[in-house]
From TrEMBL:
Any Pfam family matching the protein: FAD_binding_4
GO molecular function: D-lactate dehydrogenase (cytochrome) activity; D-lactate dehydrogenase (NAD+) activity; FAD binding
Entry superkingdom: Bacteria
Protein name according to UniProt: FAD-binding oxidoreductase
Source organism: Okeania hirsuta
SUPFAM superfamilies with a match to the protein in the record: FAD-binding/transporter-associated domain-like, FAD-linked oxidases, C-terminal domain
Highest classification ranks of the organism: Bacteria, Bacillati, Cyanobacteriota, Cyanophyceae, Oscillatoriophycideae
Amino acid sequence: MVSVLQSNPSLKLKWHYLEFCQKILGHQYVITNENVIAAVETATFETSQQVRFVIQPGSPQEVQACLKAAQLFGIHIHPVSQGYNWGYGSQVPDENLSVVMNLSRLNQIKVDGKNATVTLGPGVTQQQLFEYLRSNYPHLFFSLTGSSPYSSIIGNAIDAGYANGLNVIRWNHVISLEAILPSGELLKTGFDALPNASTAGISRYGLGPDLKGLFRQSNLGIVTEMTLELSLAPAYLQIFYFSIDEEEQLGELTDQLHNLKQTGLIESNWILLHGYRILAEVSQFPWQETDAQRTLDRNLMLKLLRQQQIPGWSGVYNGVFAIYSPTLRHAEAMKADIHEVLNNKVSRLKTFTVDQSQIKKLRWNRNLEIPELTHKLLKGRLLTFAGIPVQGSIPISYWRKRNSIPEIMDLDRDRCGFIWLAVTAPASGTDALTIVPVIEHFFNDYGFEPMIVLDGVNSREMYVMTSLVYDREVAGRDEQARKCFERLAAELRTMGYYQYRWPKALSVENALPERNDDYASVFAKLQSSILGD
Ligand SMILES: Cc1cc2nc3c(=O)[nH]c(=O)nc-3n(C[C@H](O)[C@H](O)[C@H](O)COP(=O)(O)OP(=O)(O)OC[C@H]3O[C@@H](n4cnc5c(N)ncnc54)[C@H](O)[C@@H]3O)c2cc1C
């Protein structure tokens, strides 16, 4: 967040702001400890931004006071909700010498059980909301990302995050929010600020322009509260697992999944994961069997994957989606229809069904056995689609690490190299077959395994995501990863595939082509009127 006074913050000003924050927040919530600062300056890729110190306000009023003062002192503020933005920059600010505002103390949760909504603070994690709903509103659940259970919901929504199952693109399910601008002004969207408004917290749009979009991926203000949609727990949850053996089948399968989604048969997102990605979820790089300097050979990858004996998932691409049913009749009819459509498009197809009482038990004890669901990876996906936090797909980050995966995974601390390259594309077989070989070519060139994921997030669009996964301890790999990212992103842009989320702290050439509108000048005007530059 840029201040009104663009004066070079001198050491003197820095100390003034520090003292101000100490006075307002108390010394324990102004962190200057070198080890903590070093951790906050560390991401899953190379960065050079330095952090002055970290502040942890405990109320919106404290956020407001700290923002107003920052503007006077000419200090950049970088907000994080929980700071688990792994692969996109972790807690590292975009601007050098920022103060990081950690909002994890703002963790209030309020649920409207009748209208299935939750109003929460930025510090609320996926795990906290899960536990709260399990104890207080067992008929409701919240969709989960594949990231850490301790990552936030608000930070994820603001940074274009997406979840699995229902309510996939988080921002689409934000009803309203409260934000504080650098001037200290407070803004509420929808009808939330009007006295006695009967649709406060349930109506997305008040009168006039919808201002909540200003706060998505913008850093124009700090969101101190957000109201989001929840989902009704289903009577039956079915998970479909399938795979294909030949890359040529990918086009037809993508078209078929798109069709299932467009016709409304599938309500959840559909996901296709490359074999490399699945292998990395269940094992680490086979150091003994191959040359570590190169990309793991495709045939060896498939052999190792098949040794894992994951029912339904042993192909070059492996897919999953879920059906949420209110009745058994609905569940059975959907299963029959989907099997009819998919059977001859895939090499294997398996369905597992759990009912409400099983889901309830799993919510309290995720170690419970599910008959026939023998592999932990498949069970992990079922739990995720049921809104029960697991470790997500975080273990893939340790794929190229020489030591084993620690109990508590911290990618920044453990120097796991991880960069997300995520583009949006039309959900079509032609697009899948156009993009995938390009990613494979670049990854192969630079010696990274193409852990590609195609994710049908809505009935028109798919996210094509791939992650550069490496060991930051290996000299030169940070640089190689950055170059691969830069070149591949540029190539995909020329093909018309743009990133929808960007690791801003990564110093790369983000040369977007010239737009054929006046976005830049319009946004600059908005920015200067909000930030006061
Ligand atoms: C293996 C792996 C799997 C992953 N899977 C997923 C996935 O399935 N879906 C997904 O979306 N992501 C995924 N991620 C990426 C990332 O870990 C998540 O998006 C995570 O939720 C981000 O961390 P956070 O929620 O703690 O947000 P934060 O790090 O707190 O915030 C993210 C950014 O949003 C802005 N911000 C945060 N809070 C505020 C605020 N209150 N006001 C204004 N701006 C704010 C800041 O710029 C901040 O840098 C994955 C990462 C890895 C490594």
